[in-house]
Amino acid sequence: MDKPALLGGSRTIDTPFPTQITVGREEADAVRQVMETGLLSHFIAGNRPEFYGGPKVRELEARWAERFACGHAVAVNSATSGLIAAVGAVGIGPGDEVITSPWTMSATPAAVLAFNGIPVFADIEDETYGLDPASVEARITPRTKAILVVHLAGHPARMKEIMALARRYNLAVIEDAAQSPGALCDGRLAGTIGHIGVFSLNAHKAIQCGEGGVAVTDDKELAYRMQLIRNHAEAGIAAGHSPLSLANMLGFNFRMTELEAAVAVEQLRKMDGINAHRQALAAVLSERLGRLEGLIPPVVREGSIHVYYFYGLRLDPGIAGLSRELLVEALLAEGVPTRVGYAQPLYLQPLYQRGVLYGGTSCPFGCPLYQGEAAYGPGLCPTTERLEDECFFWVEVVRRPLTMEDMDTVARAFEKTWRHRGALRAFAALRRA
Q1: What does the radius of gyration of the chain's CA atoms come to, in whole angstroms?
Q2: Which letter does DSSP use for residue 18 in this model?
Q3: Of 166, 160, 222, which Cα lies nearest the Cα of 197?
Q4: Is the pLDDT of residue 1 over 70?
């Protein structure tokens, strides 16, 4: 009766968990109100108030700046757009190096490539997956102009140490806080510690408006430069907008619609409650799973608050007596939504391995203005590679509308698997024979 489902027993979870839903009547009402105005977007790339967007976009920016205690917020149509605007705003260009994480969405280093900069990948910590400050410092050269930090999974990176490096070497710091709105680092909100922070409002995030993002900064000029890049900078400057520097003032259409902004305003109101629910579920799950030998629940570093965009686990196969792949297979059979690893280290992608990008040439890696040598070989970031190849997996359960009872069910699936590790190993060995 207790036999693992992988070995022919009953599944612990018979019915798949429902999809995450964070929107409700409030968002529907807000969208309806915008529809009634007929103004679904209100941007104009000219020297008019509408250069900064419509009333809902500006309301979202004002509310976001207030909630995150920052001087300026710039709404965009995705966090990818926000990262591109941020990299452009700090002045990255051909020949410049930006140190970033290899364990993130591809959009993070792509924002550097968008301005012909060179992503330099530093290794990460094996507990909270943020950039390892020692690895960052080892990668700094005279060509380094910025550090692009990633707060992965909902836990902040070591910002105190990273900001100290930035001050010592006179570097800009951009925070990719796409997965971490509401996370705290030494009492400060992730995304508000560096020079620019970027948040995501993509449909998969804790709070969302379908597609969208917000960039924040305390620097008025950086905010202005991001506003220009967001809305056809060259046209805006021709119409009378005047940044201090024309560097990177080629504009894009990164504009958020009034519909998205209306949803985002309501989602922002719910952020603290949504995060609290995730944290409560994670606490229950960590308490139960922490009893299983060889299984390591998410670590929360002292002085930090985790908001659990996803619930990542590490496995010590030698202690647990199970390979990660066999464990994940067994959990999937029990009905637990589980994924192996997170993302291939980005420097192993063909883009970086082949060094070919613009126009099929080696630019920017082989650009005459670049005096360095981009290194993207295997072994570059050993901690990242070990986590992705051997240790890390995650379960998609710490979210609404799941309940404490659901966490109990998930924990029972893990506990059942642990009780039958010997039988599972024998099954795997027989299958290989």
Answers
A1: 23
A2: P
A3: 222
A4: no
Instruction: Give the position of tokens 């910002």.
Output: 159
Asked whether 266 and 27 are in contact (CB, 8 A), the reply is yes
CB atoms within 10 A of CB 412: 15
8-state DSSP, 124 = B
Q: Say if CB 375 and CB 139 are below 8 A apart.
A: no
For the stretch 245-254, contacts whose Cβ atoms lie closer than 8 Å and that sit 24 or more positions apart, written own/partner, are 245/91, 247/91, 247/93, 248/88, 248/89, 248/91, 248/92, 248/93, 248/115, 249/225, 251/45, 252/81, 252/84, 252/85, 253/77, 254/76, 254/77, 254/78, 254/81, 254/82, 254/84, 254/85, 254/229, 254/230
What's the predicted TM-score (pTM) here?
0.96
* pLDDT top residue among 227 and 2: 227
Residue whose token pair is 């960052």? 136
Round to whole Å and give the CA distance between 331 and 313. 13
Q: How many helices (H) and strands (E) does the chain have?
A: 15, 14
Query: How far does CA 298 lie from the centroid of its chain?
Result: 16
- Residues with a catalytic annotation lie at 205
How does residue 264 score in pLDDT terms, banded at 50, 70 and 90?
A: very high
Q: In sequence order, which ranges of 335-432 are alpha helices (DSSP H)?
A: 350-354, 382-386, 404-419, 421-432
Residue 22 and residue 202: Cα distance in Å, rounded?
Answer: 12
CA 195 from centroid of its chain's CA atoms: 17
DSSP string for residues in 145-177: EEEEEE-GGG----HHHHHHHHHHHT-EEEEE-
What are 144-163's pLDDT values in tens digits? 999 999 999 999 999 999 99
- The pLDDT value given to residue 46: 82
